[in-house]
Specification:
Length: 511
Amino acid sequence: MSLSQTHHTGVIQAVVGEPEVLEDAPFRLPAHRVADDPDLAGDVEGSAAWLSLKASATALQSLQAQDGCVPDAAHHASARAHVEAIIAAIVDLTPRFPHDHSYLTASVTDFRRWADEGFGVPDFYDSLVAFQPQEHRVDGIRHLVVFPMYTQNGSSRRHVEALIVEVIWPEFIAQLETEYSNRLFVSLRLVDFTPGYDTNSAVLFPETVAMREIPTFTWGGIFQDREAARYRRVVRAASGITKLDLPAEAERMLEDQALTEKTFVMWDIIHDRTHMRGDLPFDPFMIKQRMPFFLYSLEELRCDLTAFREVVAIQKRLSDRVGSGAALSPAESEMLEHARLVQYAVIFDRIFRFAITGTRVRNYDAVGGQLLFAWLHQRGVLHWTDTSLAFEWSGVPAAVMALGDAIDELYWRSIDRPKTAHWLAAYELVRGTLTPSPASRWARGLPDEVLAGPAKAYTDAVLDDEFPLSMFFEALEKKMRPVIDSTAGIRGGADDPRLRAPGSGAGGRWG
């Protein structure tokens, strides 16, 4: 998952990557609740009102500057016409989204004020505060979302974007959430969208919206359909290239979008609540403080490995009940099925997609994927022999959790160390498995003037590509580059031909 992180104090921390969701904000029960009817907006993406809204928002984008304003007065008449069309469409569509009535009403007000005040930097604070999707976590219910916002891994411009999204909330997730409480977490499916989301962005987060002040954020959305779709395409291609014989359960995920979506929901709801929990450094969100990027590699990996550990425990608990002759409820049976699938998802997404996606400029997700791969290889549960990849699955869970234990130990010791000493210890943990760049100043040992100086000098000494790709990943990246590139804008619908293709364009099998 390129990351912007918020927590319950309302402090915003913009970092490279996708945001996470934190649970600790107080959950506000609505004063009244409109009946959530998933069928009301079931075919809204084909309506004339939506198509008009989408076209008008897209046209308006071409008039907006980086900060969202319309700077050229000569364009104001056109901008007003587009805004009036957007408003008319929102008014027309509001009855299809009764649960969003307060938000859509506020959105109309925000659009009118923006136009009336001359199209300066937009301020959609009021409508953002009124939008509360976490209060309607009902499987299949839809939301109409219209804001001036930027999109992670897409555009840094705050342009008006419009989306129709659908909640993914199966019963087993609703039951799981009672144990792994995460009231801010909203799991979504993309239905239709303007060009800002025709990208790699797989999140919808409030901090991306143009607003006059930062409220206490109460929700965060992740598009599990996009995560699942790109996972299926990437893993299908990578397993073919590496001649990996996938277990039957993992193979099923590549053929079943809905199964994979639910798997990612289970992974993400546990991952996201892990941030700010446990024996942590004072603030694990280090990029805000300009800390070395590899520390964020460890934080993201810690959350994934915590999710891995938890689903292993869930699998054991439910399997033991089955073994003792107890009957599981339908939701528990689905939870047991997906607990095993999450383990495959964490491993394959980390090593096949995270490790080779994006640039080599401070790519913390890539370092996390490289670290997991090398850790498993060096512990003898992952093999690259005769140009084929293989796992000893019986030993994989223990090896994965051992890496999680090592990171947890690093964190536990951190509160007794000076900050820079913690950074050095984290570096030693990573370099104990990954080989640093031969040009690394950190690997050679930082000079005394850096060690005795300000923390900024430590960070400045970190190379953009401190831990380069291994020979394995260099070769894999070249073969996988067309496939990785092809996942931009992918969605989970059956109409996307990229999900039907058997990984074409991957460059053939290894060797």
